[in-house]
Amino acid sequence: MTNTIVHIGGYTAASGGRGDGIVAARRDPGSGELTPLGTAAVTDSPSFLVRHPVLPVLYAVNELPQGQVSAFGVGTDGELTPLAVRSTGGADPCHLAVAPDGRHLFVANYGGGSVAVLPLDERGVPAERSDLVVHQGHGPDPERQEKAHCHMVSPDPGSGPLLAVDLGTDSVYRYDLDAGAGRLVPRAPRTRTADGTGPRHLARHPDGRRYWLAGELDATVTAYEATPEGALHERGRVDASGRTGHVQPSEIAVGPDGRFLYVGNRGVGTVAVFALDGELPRLVAEVDTGGEWPRHFALTGAHLYVADERADMVRVFRVDPGSGVPEPLGEPVPVPSPTCVLP
Which helix (H) or strand (E) holds 154? Predict the structure, then answer.
């Protein structure tokens, strides 16, 4: 069984972090063990990473006041070769995704409250930005929702619209891509959450019908079902955590078999596990991560990898295939200011 490479993004001194750039690690698929290989690319605050669907190319946002995206060729041992750096047209890009056909890159500018589109050539190298859509509006929280703050871009795995999650306007926007022009065409209606939800990230079920949205500001998970026309219909809301205290949800994802939903909760330092066997997610377990600030996690194979930004570590868990509950394995892996784990 061959080992595989994991790349880990994080904050550098440019954002008050302690990292140097993108860290590579070797993963043993059997044991789940991670062996750090050192910094694979020195780049400012690569806070979120994504891979090209078919090419050996990795993309990172550079979460800076003048937002950038960096592209790297990926070697067999995880080494990264710079390919291009492009402007995202907005401040503090925090998330990015590649179109399923590998021809466009989408970027969420948190500070800019906008979505950028960058065409990709046949080698996966991004060209200059072909579109920038700026969201308008605000929410009731005067500190966090004074204007739009786009937090995630989620392309449909099939032919459906791109979903853009905006924390500042309590909205999920839908866009169709005009691939020839590289431009986004708004598709009405946008989905509005309850006031003050502060939606951060969205998880899709493999069935293509069900969606769950993590509310960073009100510590909830909102369940949606797509109508035949593709609009999101709210089915209800549940608490993101069963713990008391300050809860600030971060990552949200559906397990590979579609039976369980996982939510990272900063503040209380947990990953909550929900069964998806009913109308609404049902909390079945809540696991301590060993740190206070689980910023991001990734599920791959039988394992869960949790990046704790403030504890400077990645924690490895084995997920029980029956119960869906993660069990911690070994000692935490030291990584400075990690914010994204990309198997």
Answer: strand 150-154
pLDDT digit string, tens, across residues 198-219: 999 999 999 999 999 999 999 9
Q: Specify the CATH number for the domain of residue 328.
A: 2.130.10.10
Count of residues making up the chain: 343
What's the mean pLDDT in 246-266? 98
Whether the upstream peptide bond of residue 82 has omega within 30° of 0, thus cis, is no
* Structure-derived torsion over alpha carbons of residues 116, 234, 251, 13, reported in degrees to the nearest 10: 40
SS3 state at 98: strand
What string of H, E and C letters represents the secondary structure of 276-306? CCCCCCEEEEEEECCCCCEEEEEEECCEEEE
Query: Do residues 282 and 330 both lie within one domain?
Result: no
Domain count, the chain: 2
Decide: pTM greater than 0.85.
Answer: yes
- Residues 268/245, Cβ–Cβ less than 8 Å: yes
Strand partners, 273: 262, 285
Q: Are 156 and 86 members of one domain?
A: yes
50 and 79 in a common domain: yes
Task: List strands edge to edge, sheet with 68-74.
Answer: 49-51, 57-62, 68-74, 80-87
Q: What is the pLDDT of residue 229?
A: 84
Q: Which of 245, 266, 288 is the last residue of a domain?
A: 288
Could you tell me the residue range of the domain that residue 232 belongs to?
198-288
Domain boundary residue, one of 288, 308, 331? 288
User: Is 326 buried (19+), middle (13-18) or exposed (0-12) by CB count in 10 A?
Assistant: buried
Bridge partners (DSSP) of residue 9 are 340
